[in-house]
Design goal:
The chain is of the alpha+beta class. It contains three helices and seven strands. A five-stranded mixed sheet has the order 6-3-5-4-7. Strands 1-2 form a two-stranded antiparallel ribbon.
């Protein structure tokens, strides 16, 4: 009977564990590590769970001087077309609320992306020169927990641009 590595399933090739050793490095260059240090390397394409992008539910509120409703609606519809995780937008002549999912590594990244959204799409979607007056960013489990508890009901018309 052949020998197999611990953890390999019968009929499956053994999984190799990649490690790095200090041997072979030139002295004086690179990172100073003790010569007996062994680090585990990750195969290509494997990312730490902490570095994996997560989904964040974003509610962005904007407001400013009154704008023509037809132009505002067309601009919000263009924004919905441009943004892949767009859920819904509600609007009035002087304010709007946009709900969407953002994929980001952490809360800071999701908030930074959300704060740039309106400004970056102002010209391409012909949006009014309004300022951001509110921002809420919560992770997916928190959003679903709120909905399950009866708080923050999901939007009635997903993917739509609706007046208030």
């Amino acid at each position: 009977m052949g020998r197999r590595r611990q953890g390999a399933l019968p009929g499956q090739p053994p999984q190799r564990r990649l490690t790095s050793i200090a041997g072979g490095r030139e002295t004086g260059g690179g990172v100073d590590e003790p010569s007996d240090t062994v680090r585990e390397l990750k195969p290509a394409g494997v990312v730490d769970e902490a570095e994996q992008p997560r989904l964040w539910h974003v509610v962005l509120s904007v407001a400013g001087k009154a704008a023509p409703l037809a132009e505002l609606r067309a601009g919000l519809e263009q924004l919905a077309h441009d943004h892949s995780f767009f859920l819904t937008a509600r609007y009035a002549a002087d304010h709007a609320e946009i709900r969407y999912w953002e994929q980001a590594r952490d809360l800071h990244d999701a908030a930074a992306i959300a704060l740039r959204l309106w400004g970056e799409h102002k010209l391409t979607a012909n949006l009014p020169p309004w300022e951001i007056v509110g921002l809420e960013v919560v992770d997916r489990p928190t959003y679903h927990k709120r909905v399950a508890e009866g708080f923050g009901d999901p939007p009635r018309n997903l993917g739509g641009v609706q007046p208030y």
